[in-house]
């Protein structure tokens, strides 16, 4: 599966990032094993995956920090390693691990950073701090910021020069829900102004909300990719209910067991409240399969004289897909 090409809808000039068959090694260890994807200009692409999947390694190649191994890598049509001086002014980077100088204040940190970035003149320090809600901390030493506040400072620095392309490696890790929500808004606003974003996150809801397209990586390979809808549609629908009896009672009562639905056997778990039954349906028409399943289950329930308690239909989630990808390959 590692050779999957994740094609953006556009091509050539429209592409901010092109990765084709990238392999990346640390000594004898192959951290990235032939991944391919493209990111169109103006798009937000999320790289999801397990710890150690190779997301940060891939980002560092694209950011020009690491020499690419085998394969084809382009950022704005340029080589991110050889042409890094040309590319650097156009990109903003939020690293997974912040490396702040703890004795500087927040304001001093932004000033220092502004002095180092090529095109930061347009953004004032106040604006940058306001953007991430850190105005009141301007005079506070960085070491006195909380983890989530440091992350917000990171974001302020990454966007200071209004980059065309933003690399955000786990931007909201450690943030409280309100700060995370505010950060999503900052990212969405930047995107609305035309920025391209490559994001990694372990918060699947974040990817569902923000990403135009996403890929799920595990152990150096991309295992699934596409728009959120495309990826999630592969997860199928779940039809679930509870039977008000124990497993033993269910076995006794239904001599032929629980029915198959569209050829699928249910997953049955026994809880104190009864027997939980879940069918995952991924075959056939997405629009109609849940209805057909419910119809046949109700017919079965009427036939055997049982009530399907808390009957529900749930669309598969990104989490279902993630767990399946990881489960299949582990
Ligand atoms: N400098 C390094 N030297 C040796 N191995 C490394 C180095 N950096 C990363 N690795 C290894 O490469 C693999 C990929 O690491 P990477 O940091 O790219 O993963 P990741 O997908 O970003 O994970 P996480 O979600 O935990 O941040 C891991 O197995 C890691 O141990
Ligand atoms: Mg990482």
From TrEMBL:
Listed PANTHER family: ABC TRANSPORTER ATP-BINDING PROTEIN
GO cellular component, one term: plasma membrane
Keywords recorded for this protein, A-Z: Antibiotic resistance, ATP-binding, Nucleotide-binding, Transport
Origin: domain of life: Bacteria
The organism of origin for this protein: Sinosporangium album
Protein known as: ABC-2 type transport system ATP-binding protein
Matching InterPro entries: AAA+_ATPase, ABC_transporter-like_ATP-bd, ABC_transporter-like_CS, ABC_transporter_ATP-binding, P-loop_NTPase
Major site of localization recorded for this protein: membrane
Entry keyword annotation includes Secreted: no
């Amino acid at each position: 599966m590692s050779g999957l090409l994740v094609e953006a809808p556009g091509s050539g000039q429209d592409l901010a990032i092109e990765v084709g068959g990238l392999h990346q090694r640390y000594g004898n260890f192959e951290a990235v094993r032939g991944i391919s994807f493209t990111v169109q200009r103006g798009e937000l692409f999320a790289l999801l995956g397990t710890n150690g999947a190779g997301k940060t390694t891939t980002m560092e190649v694209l950011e020009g920090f690491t020499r690419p191994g085998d394969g084809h890598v382009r950022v704005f049509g340029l080589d991110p390693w050889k042409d890094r001086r040309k590319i650097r002014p156009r990109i903003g980077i939020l690293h997974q691990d912040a490396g702040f100088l703890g004795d500087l204040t927040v304001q001093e940190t932004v000033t220092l950073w502004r002095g180092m970035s090529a095109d930061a003149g347009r953004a004032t320090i106040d604006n940058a701090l306001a953007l991430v809600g850190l105005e009141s901390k301007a005079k506070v030493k960085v070491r006195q910021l909380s983890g989530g506040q440091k992350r917000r400072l990171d974001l302020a620095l990454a966007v200071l020069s209004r980059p065309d392309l933003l690399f955000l490696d786990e931007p909201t890790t450690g943030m409280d829900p309100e700060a995370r929500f505010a950060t999503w808004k900052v990212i969405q606003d930047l995107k609305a102004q035309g920025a391209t974003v490559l994001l990694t996150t372990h918060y699947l809801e974040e990817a569902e909300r923000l990403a135009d397209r996403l890929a799920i990586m595990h152990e150096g390979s991309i295992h699934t990719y596409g728009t959120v809808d495309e990826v999630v549609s592969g997860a199928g629908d779940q039809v679930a209910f509870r039977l008000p009896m124990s497993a033993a009672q269910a076995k006794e009562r239904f001599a032929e067991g629980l029915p198959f639905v569209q050829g699928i056997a249910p997953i049955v778990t026994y809880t104190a409240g009864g027997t939980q039954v879940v069918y995952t349906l991924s075959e056939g028409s997405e629009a109609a399969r849940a209805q057909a399943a419910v119809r046949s289950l109700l017919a079965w329930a009427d036939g055997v004289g049982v009530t399907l308690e808390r009957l529900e239909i749930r669309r598969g989630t990104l989490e279902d897909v993630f767990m399946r990808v990881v489960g299949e390959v582990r």
